[in-house]
Amino acid sequence: MMSDEAYRTVKDLPTEEFMVPGNPLCAGCGGLLAVRLFHKALGGKVVWVNAAGCMTMLSVYPYSPLQSSWLYTAFASAPAGAQGIRDALDLLMKKGKISPDEDLKVVVVTGDGAAYDIGLQSTLGAVQRNLDFYYLCYDNEAYGNTGFQMSSATPYGSSSATTEPTGSFPEGNTGHKKDLFEVWKSQKPAYLATISAARTVDFLQKVEKSMKISGPKLFISPVGCPTGWGYDPQDTIRIEKLGIETGMWPLKEYIDGKVKHTYVPRALKPVEQYLETQSRYRHLFKPARNEDALAIIQEDINRYWAEASKAEGFEIRLIGT
Amino acid sequence: MKSLSLMTGNAAAAWGARLARVDYIPAYPITPQTEIIETLSSWIRNGEMDAKLVQLESEHSMLTAAGAASSTGARVFTATSSQGLLYGMEMLYNITGWRTPLVLVNVSRALAAPITLEPDHNDVLAARDSGFLQLHAENCQEIVDMILLSYRLAEDRKVMLPAIVNLDGFYLSFTRERVALPDMKKVAEFLPEYNGSNPFRASRPVAKASSVLSSNLYSYFRYQMHISSLNALSLLGRISGEFESLFGRSYGPVEEFMTDDADYVLVMTNSFSTIGKQAVVRMRSRGVRAGLLRIRMLRPFPADAIASVLAGKRAVAVFDQNIAPGSGGIIYPEIVSSLYHLKNRPEDVFPVIGGLGGKQITMGEMEMIFEMMHKGHWSAEGPHSPLYLMRNDEIESVKKNLQIAGQVVRQ
After folding, report:
1. Residue span of the structural domain in which B90 resides
2. Which of B211, B213, B218 should one mutate to test binding to chain A, selecting the residue with the greatest count of A CBs within 10 A?
3. pTM higher than the cut 0.95
């Protein structure tokens, strides 16, 4: 371990703020919390490169809550924007036109719609070129900013504005969530991790570790979305914790060719405890329980952790075993 | 460096970028543009040029990287054609909004479907309203010179908009012509180092391309872009004057070829203008007072310069090497609207459409256009209905192909 020592407990959280209060995002936005923590870990010398999504509302002319730089690009090509900025800074430093003090960390920040769907080609391009950049995907599992339509990050069984549960489609979304971690991993990025603000120290340690590495540093942060998921804004962290404890959201990292789960619950909680908290899954319980759909969701989680525990040799108690 | 070299249009474009001492070249291959990025790549890899070329995974990404690097203070060059320009179309509108003064060479190639290779101008004219400045070249010399002029115009603080330099695929991209390459030292005098506006720097955070949720603000920024584009038109005279004093060649927004005493003027753009000019000379030898007006700068649109040349002419024909299905030529209405306010506007402005997909134009067809203007005889559907160029031998070849494809061809 290189530099985990910087963050041992949540008390080690840097007090410095790079995002001042006041912005148009929803109360209880999990994505906002992830961006704020990420910024604390990275420090202030940052240029955010954004694709269309909820975070696009952070910088609304003439305001920005960020004490760092910002470029809104387009929906599909934020990583290419990062390429242009990184290359320009490097070549201007090399030509002696700017001082190394003026260098910036280049950080792509997008939602799951950009990361999983329309911007995937652009991301894989940047990773293949071994671009030295950060990518923070705040994954609220749908197109949140447009009113919560299905994305390829939407889990099986979730309702959304385009996967309404009906008599013909009682489970809501019939597709399964794309495994972006595996897709990104296939290109062997320098560093790749899932992070959650609900496990703050794990989150900070991972960002800190990645800062020592040159190349693509990619992060997927599953984040609560009160308006899309249907829960009280005060419950974001509680629900994110349930996501982790039920095994819905594995926290892991990929470095030097190996995947390692950085937090393993001793015993998984039944996934129903997580699903029940959100109205996007209400149709799985009311008016009648959809046992088939609930079983599919639980089995997916069990299968995932059974494979992971076998591959890494850790112990975990699954549901119904 | 020899003062005169024989080179293709694509090589001329690469030389333009090299002489402009660009820092950064995001690239993506597409015929017929590819030779430009191959040439630049080779120069960089052999240490002849101090720049970075990065091959992106699409034109959309290529243009995003181009705009982002320009926003960071690098001088940026890039090139594409046809489908590539359309694939990146969203970013054309974005990077003009970012006010990034880069130069994009478009090597014109007709658009799919059906997919084809040779040029017309539906590709570059699809970018007409993007906010890019547009300069259209007739020959290889103009390509080099227009790239240098474009950087000066684009980087002027009164403009701060990207520019497209257009050249015709095949007819210019792969045609070797004599080019006088400007001296590097003199170019440095003409085009000083790029000094970006509010580039991304650690000491001075800046938010760029922020969202705008007020329609007042949105309108303001759009009007501002329009005014900035028009500023390029008024600046061109001075900048071209400086260019002429250093290199002996000057470029107005339009080229007047034997228009002074002409009664009949043909309006053209790009490389096919060379054929039009020959026709003018032939018509003159037959006693017809013919002339040709070539639009060099398509954006900003030089309406006043066009009006002052065409005022008082007996007839004008506008040659559109493009087609807007359901409307006609794209440039024709722009010419007409620049003449409408004139008291002595030409009585007839005739539309011509030809050269689609690079279809050749013979001297005979060019002469026919002047004859028709001369006689005042236009199409049976009326003077505002386009003349669609297609010769009998070409129709026969189409029929043959249709028959091979199993179509029943009515005689």
Report:
1. 4-192+212-247
2. B211
3. yes
Is residue A58 included in any domain, yes or no? yes
pLDDT tens, residue by residue, A241-254: 999 999 999 999 99
Answer yes or no: do B205 and A67 touch at CB < 8 A. yes
Residue B275, pLDDT above cutoff 60: yes
Q: Give per-residue pLDDT as tens, A96-147.
A: 999 999 999 999 999 999 999 999 999 999 999 999 999 999 999 999 999 9
CA distance A43 to chain B (A): 11
The total of structural domains in chain A comes to 1
Select from B152, B119, B157 the least CA-distant residue to B138: B119
Same domain, B239 and B315: no
Give the helix, strand, coil percentages of chain B, each rounded to 5.
40, 20, 40
Which phi and psi (to 5°) does residue B302 adopt?
A: -85, 65
So what's the ipTM on this one? 0.97
Bridge partners, residue A111, by sequence: A138
Would you say residue A95 lies in a domain?
yes
Contact B58 A122 (CB under 8 A): yes
Q: Do A64 and B207 touch (CB under 8 A)?
A: yes
> What total number of domains does chain B contain?
2
User: Do residue B84 and residue B183 come from a single domain?
Assistant: yes
User: Which residue reads 């040779």 in tokens?
Assistant: B118
Q: Is the peptide bond before A295 cis (omega within 30 degrees of 0)?
A: no
